[in-house]
Amino acid sequence: MTSPSCLDARKISKRFDGSVVLDHVSLKAHVSRITSIIGVNGAGKTTLLKILAGLEEMNDGFVLIDSNEISASALRTHSTMIFQKSIMISGTVYDNVAYGLRVNGVPSQYIKEKVRDALDTVNLANFEKRKARKLSSGEQQRVAIARALVIERKILLIDEPTANLDPANAMLVEQTIKSAARSRILILSTHNLAQAKRLSHQVIHLYKGCVIEDRDAEDFFTSPHDEKTRLFVDGELQ
Amino acid sequence: MGHGEEDAALDPILQGLIQAIQLIISGDPEVYRITELSLIVSVSGTLISCVWSVPISAFLALRNVPGKRTIKGIFTALIGIPTVALGLSLYLLLSRTGPLGYFQLMYTPYAIIAGQCILVTPIIVSFTTSALESVDPDVRTLARTLGASGFQTDALVLREARWGVVLAVIAAFNRAFAELGVAMMLGGNIRNVTRVLTTAIALQTSMGDIPLSIALSIILLSIVMTLSIIVSLARRR
Mean pLDDT across the stretch A149-175? Predict the structure, then answer.
């Protein structure tokens, strides 16, 4: 399988119990570039990421990878998602990071080495035997990142990765995200504008389920077109 | 009541207790035979019941089954089924003139095992379903985003709920081990054949053999409590 270089979502709509959560959302994300989706709470960021990860069905729209339309189940084979709340399965850090490798049928002789490398990447070397649920939230988030990186999916979707972290852990996570993006299509959801500014190449502003601005990061922050984006960037949009 | 009368009232209990301990320590063959059969019957009944109870629980907890709440409610209500009522129903089925009389299971350990299988099914189903439902739903989402198949996802949820499942099985075993109605009505309390701890205790008490009753009760309680303590300690690790 060749590595995808472009994810193209077209007119995605999602409704829950009659209320529209996403309304004809379109976006394009490219390999080696970090695309940030920003917006206030409830804008639909997490739902959009879940759809792009193949975890949620869309009501309308479709997703193309390198110009080929792709189903939700096929999306799951290309992508993985890191959630805002780090979900640790019971057992050790090793069990957590190795889980994705095991279910994907990676031979056991390679698993140990891959887990060690992934933990090195997130500065958690020698944490293999620690109980995952007893780690701090920052460490758990780094385990979650290692667990996602180790399965080597080319599309990485990250939902509010540093929302509950202290500055030191947040910085480590951001560094890992930057290095992970070099060979991946990486879409990040955040309401942390400073983080979006530091990390992104492209920024999409989602407001009440609609994309109201989609531009290169620099232009987005210096000269937003949309009035709501300007208010959001200035911290005045609730 | 004076001191002398109190001592006289306590005397048979104390004596019974001392003799009971002697019976256990001396390795009385009767006591050990009864204990062994009780364990075989109750462990078999519980494990056989797991064969269908755990999959039923997984199906109820992890799939969108129509009427799920009603089905769960029925299983929960059946937890309290009187053992004599169940024993009577099975007696009518298994007795020589009953529809299953052909198998000649009455008054054999197999009849007790069959009865205990049915008795503990609602316990395992109810408790295991609750344990599976209490697993964070995000665990399923996580498994799917890491590439797990539907079956692997269910297996992970089952793994996350494993202590709840173990507790369900232990509770079921305790119920089977300590019940009297099914063992008495289907087993008939035949010495060396179907006599288990509970039926033996009932018999020896009615015959006035208090030391043996106490000895058997101590064993019954010790096994039930030891098992619970082991599970609790293992869980803490």
Answer: 92
Cross-chain residue pair A151–B144, CB shorter than 8 Å? no
At A177-201, the pLDDT tens digits run 999 999 999 999 998 899 999 999 9
- The ipTM assigned to this model is 0.91
- How many distinct structural domains can be found in chain A? 1
Interface check for B159 against chain A (CB to CB < 8 A): the answer is yes
* CATH code of the domain covering residue A229: 3.40.50.300
CB contact under 8 A, B147 and A89: no
In angstroms, the Cα distances linking A102 to A96, A97, A178 are 10, 9, 26
The residue-averaged pLDDT of A25-40 equals: 95
Instruction: Tell whether B43 is covered by a domain.
Output: yes
Instruction: List, for residues A53-75, the tens digit of each pLDDT value.
Output: 999 999 999 999 999 999 988 99
Closest residue by Cα to residue B221 from B48, B9, B38:
B38
H or E, element range at A33: none
* B210 contacts chain A (CB < 8 A): no
Tell me the nearest-neighbour CA distance from B161 into chain A, angstroms. Answer: 10
Does the pLDDT at position B215 exceed 80? yes
Averaged pLDDT, A38-46? 92
**Parent domain of A166:** 6-233
**Alpha-carbon distance B20 to A237, whole Å?**
79
Instruction: Give the one of A80, A89, A103 whose C-beta lies nearest to B152's C-beta.
Output: A103
Q: Is residue B66 part of a domain?
A: yes
In a domain, A208, yes or no: yes
B61: domain CATH number is 1.10.3720.10
CB pair distance less than 8 Å for A89 and B146: no
| Predicted local confidence at residue A187, as pLDDT | 97
- Total structural domains within chain B: 1
Helix (H) or strand (E) holding A15: strand A6-16
Residues B135-188: tens digit of each pLDDT: 999 999 999 999 999 999 999 999 999 999 999 999 999 999 999 999 999 999
**Contact of B34 with B160, CB cutoff 8 Å:** no
CA distances from A173 to A37, A123, A125, A162, B136 (A): 17, 10, 15, 7, 25
